[in-house]
């Protein structure tokens, strides 16, 4: 299970090469709530945000969002950042890492650990499918240029386990190259460097199956 939020466009501490490796059950369970997963993704996109901003985006009560943000912070998945507002009552949050992974081998032993890992993996996959369906419903609003740029594809090569691992590594390297390009544009041009850029959801899956 790996979550790969996009490189934060403004002010966040997370970067795609940063990797938070989850090995304990408590931290994994902190990700098992759908709203917490959405909040972590939203923070990765925004870089930094307050509970009020995230609540408006999620359509949830500020008190509920604040509660779930604190739970994520308790497990070191996000952190409070200072200096973003003159209002001391406003707490700003940022992701600690750009990527979060819970390796299968860390949760393949005890039944409770394996079950929790499976539940979080299914939750992530459901949310990714929901994001794709939402785009399908809303694609007309994105305009001709974005509709022409968006892509979806399926390939079914016959591979060995070693080759599958190599393919995954190469695909992740390609995405990292484009993330680095976006970072360079932002650092070189500030707001102008981010013109016409949007968070693009890229999902990579490679697994064996039998028809």
From TrEMBL:
Matching InterPro entries: ArsR-like_HTH (IPR011991), HTH_ArsR_DNA-bd_dom (IPR001845), HTH_MetalResp_TranReg (IPR051081), WH-like_DNA-bd_sf (IPR036388), WH_DNA-bd_sf (IPR036390)
Keywords, in A-Z order: DNA-binding, Transcription, Transcription regulation
Domain of life of the native organism: Bacteria
Domain HTH arsR-type: 26-109
Family annotation (Pfam families): HTH_20
GO molecular function: DNA binding; DNA-binding transcription factor activity
Protein name, as recorded: Transcriptional regulator
Organism lineage: Bacteria, Bacillati, Actinomycetota, Actinomycetes, Kitasatosporales
């Amino acid at each position: 299970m790996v979550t790969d939020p996009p490189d934060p466009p403004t002010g966040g501490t997370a970067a795609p090469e940063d990797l938070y490796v989850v090995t304990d059950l408590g931290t994994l369970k902190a990700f098992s709530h759908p709203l917490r997963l959405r909040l972590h993704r939203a923070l990765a996109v925004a870089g930094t945000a307050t509970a009020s901003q995230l609540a408006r985006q999620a359509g949830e009560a500020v008190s509920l969002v604040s509660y779930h943000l604190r739970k994520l912070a308790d497990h070191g998945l996000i952190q409070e950042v200072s200096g973003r507002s003159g209002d001391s009552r406003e707490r700003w949050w940022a992701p600690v890492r750009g990527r979060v992974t819970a390796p299968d081998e860390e949760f393949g032993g005890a039944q409770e650990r394996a079950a929790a890992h499976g539940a979080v993996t299914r939750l992530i996959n459901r949310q990714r499918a929901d994001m794709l369906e939402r785009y399908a419903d809303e694609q007309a609003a994105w305009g001709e240029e974005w509709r022409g740029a968006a892509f979806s594809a399926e390939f079914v090569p016959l591979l060995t386990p070693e080759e599958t691992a190599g393919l995954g590594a190469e695909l992740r390297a390609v995405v990292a190259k484009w993330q680095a390009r976006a970072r360079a544009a932002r650092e070189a041009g500030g707001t102008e460097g981010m013109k016409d850029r949007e968070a693009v959801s890229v999902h990579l899956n490679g697994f064996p199956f039998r028809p």
